[in-house]
Amino acid sequence: MKRPLTRPPATLSPSGGEGRGEGALAPLLAFGAHPDDIEFGCGGMIASEACAGRKIYFVICSHGEAGTHGKPKQRIAEAKRAAALLGATIEFLKLDGDAHLEIRAAHAIKLAKIIRRIRPGGVLAPSLVENQHPDHARLGKLVRDAARLARYGGLKELRSLTPHKIEQLFFYAVTAEAEPRDITPVLIDVSGPEIIATWTAAMKAHASQMSTRNYVELQLTRARLLGARAGVDFAIALFPNEPLVFASLAQAGRGARRF
Length: 259
Prior knowledge:
By secondary structure, the chain is an alpha/beta fold.
């Protein structure tokens, strides 16, 4: 994997949304295929952004009904509890159901409607790597398409909502196997004790998923390893969909290697 870059935690999206005060951060919108994906994949970064005063929105595209552990009612309750701990607003979107997600234009349009309604600065989605739960990569592709469709003023299904252009699309990896090997990651420092405590509590809220594997320690270990590469205690990797543009090199953070 290429050498990662690091950025301070509150700079994923600059101000620029209509009606926001100077210096305000545009909302952050995160999509998950299942009730626990966002928390396990990038929950530390979510906690950091929320602590910086950013509005966070979760959209979960199934109830996790195909999982071996936890019934849909329980998993919905767990997701709501975790979102509350992270300071996020959560909603559930019915598409094809857990383990049945298909890539369809109609789905991308539904996601584009949400993007237009929330008008986020940054959008997060599962990575496009195939070697993971198939719903993850398919949702990542749908979100990528939706971010583009949200800009198109002539799409008849979206005409009731004002077109919206997001500032960045980042992919997160729920597992190490899902990390893209051909994209230099952006590393977000999430080392603050209060950030780690909040993230850990949000992951533990998904108690139904802990019966066969300690997912909390797995994700914290990943974050420790990423942090070690950057000289910090814990870090979350995000993978940009396209090159990032900075007005100045001073905005670019620092390199992980430190030379």
